[in-house]
Amino acid sequence: MEPTHTVTPGGEAQSDEVRFGPVEREEQELSPLEAALARAGDAEGKRDEYLADLQRLAADFDNFRKRVARDQQALVARAAERLVAELIPVLDDLERAVAVAAESAEATLEEGMRMVQRALHGALAREGLEEVAVDGQFDPHQHEALMQQPSEAPEGTVIQVLQKGYRLGDRVVRPARVIIAGPPPQAPAPAEPPQGT
User: Fold this and answer.
1) Number of structural domains, the chain?
2) Does a structural domain hold residue 137?
3) What is the pTM of this model?
């Protein structure tokens, strides 16, 4: 590009170089540098955007991994719970058989039944099965009240266990079926003598 000439009010011709001075000429020469800096700034912006996307993706994947691990643990716990729930009636039957065998004359049958009962009870205990406590006050989260009987015991106290309850870890697999104390029996009121006629 050739420099252009302009005429000053005094009639002298001036070139663009003289008129704009050295500062504007440096700006014209830096424009490719400024363009490169602008492109670099855009690239940094894109880089930051991709980095933020990658960090979000990594956080989502970590949350997914933790959720899958939690779900897997819950599934294992449910499978163990189902197995234990199926074996509890067997344990009940063995306890009834031991009670009947204790009444029979054959001590060897009773001892054999007790060994089976202890082995089954031990296996279930190793899986985390434990009996629900039934001493004391009725707890609807652990007990199932089948009936209420008048009693001298404080009202709401468990007075008899009809069927043992079991828990696996912190979950009740089967509540204990119990009879609870009701209000004490009332003595019949004395009959009033008939009033005068």
Assistant:
1) 1
2) yes
3) 0.50
What's 174's domain CATH number?
2.30.22.10
Q: Is residue 162 part of a domain?
A: yes
- Per residue, the 3-state secondary structure of the chain, as one string, reads CCCCEEECCCCCEEEHHHHHHHHHHHHHHHHHHHHHHHHHHHHHHHHHHHHHHHHHHHHHHHHHHHHHHHHHHHHHHHHHHHHHHHHHHHHHHHHHHHHHHHHCCCHHHHHHHHHHHHHHHHHHHHCCEEECCCCCECCCCCEEEEEEEECCCCCCEEEEEEECCEEECCEEEECEEEEEEECCCCCCCCCCCCCCC
Range of the domain at 174: 130-185
Q: Quick check: is 107 in a domain?
A: no
Question: Which pLDDT does position 1 carry in this prediction?
Answer: 47
**Structural domain includes residue 18:** no
* pLDDT, tens digit, 9 for 90 and up, residues 65-105: 999 999 998 888 888 888 888 788 888 888 877 777 777 76
